[in-house]
Amino acid sequence: MPNPTTEPILESNPQKFLYVGCKLCKKWKTWAHGAGMTTCYRNHLKTCHAIIYEATIKEKHLKHADKPTSSEAQTLRGPFSLKTFWDLLQRWITADDQSINVVECPEFQELLVYLGDGNIDDDDIPCRTKITKMIQDAYKDVREKIKEGLHFFFEIINEYGIISSIGQITMDNASNNNTLMEAVEDILQTQKIPFNRDGNRIRCFPHIVNLACQAIMDALKITPAAHGLNPANFQYLKSLELDLIGICRSVVNACQASSQCRQELKSTIREGNEKGTWIGELKDGQTHLRVLQLLRDCKTHWSSTYLMIDRMIYLYPAIQKFLLNINQSDLSHHLLTSQQLNILCDIHQVLEIPHAAQELLSAERTLTLSLSLPLYELIIKQWRILQTTIPELAPHIKIGIQKLEDYLQQA
Prior knowledge:
This protein is mostly helical. Helices cover 59% and strands 3% of the residues. It has 15 helices and four strands. A two-stranded antiparallel ribbon has the order 1-2. It has a two-stranded parallel sheet with strand order 3-4.
């Protein structure tokens, strides 16, 4: 161990040093010091000098001294018991989202008996009915602990005299939060304090907006009947039936299919910039395209479909040239017609409104109801304007508006 008189042990982050080295290593191990490096140093000490590290943090009462060390964690397991085995089994099933039926799989039972090393036989492995009851009982125990924690929380805020001042509680749409709000409602109502599990809850703004956008995009795949419409509208709705977002996705996948395709698209953009190919084809009189790659979307990533469409529309002059290249003749069927591209631009307008609202809210470090509630109303207002300017998409936009209004009514 270093001599503390000549080689003091660092007990805090050495902010002024550019480099940090480990003197315990025979050949010094060094790092460029910076933010977030403390965990790296700690992992090195725990891996390479565990005994000295554990003795030092205990002696100096440093951070993490109260956590069990690797040697202590082994002893905490204790002797084998069926109760612990059942508890660990049901925890694994729930944490890893396993099927309840896994306990009746013969191969899995053989594995457990083997790992039990004589402590487990076939009769000790619970059937699916028993393990289901164990999971339900564990859920009830956790729920009671949450309630106990809530009672403790309410004792504190009651002590400070602010319990009657609880207004809106903001949380995401996870189902366990429904249970939480039910418990909060029960506790407050026993104290004669007005509170409603739905009325006093504001749900996650980005999540709700994403659900509304997903509802619109799902509706686009189910186009209303085009009977009785003029030919222009009829063709518009027939194009929607092709699933233009899906076509956009296939174009992106085709252009991103290999590193060679990605490099070829980049070369097409650069060549067009050098030769002035894009003059007259870009918005706002622009003459050059930025050298960018196309983006893929993901249903659970908010605004990702909008960003995919946005990037494809921006790069479409280059994409069109790329797909028409004789070397890419097998990809030419991915080309969009001018009408399909225009309709995709209309869909882009619809998705741009909620995206802009989310960007505005994300710019704030501290989110408040004074921002989120007006933004819901702003999205609805702008979507209603689009219903008049793009009447062909009015039924689809209406579905998104209804989704937002449903959640607003719950608040």
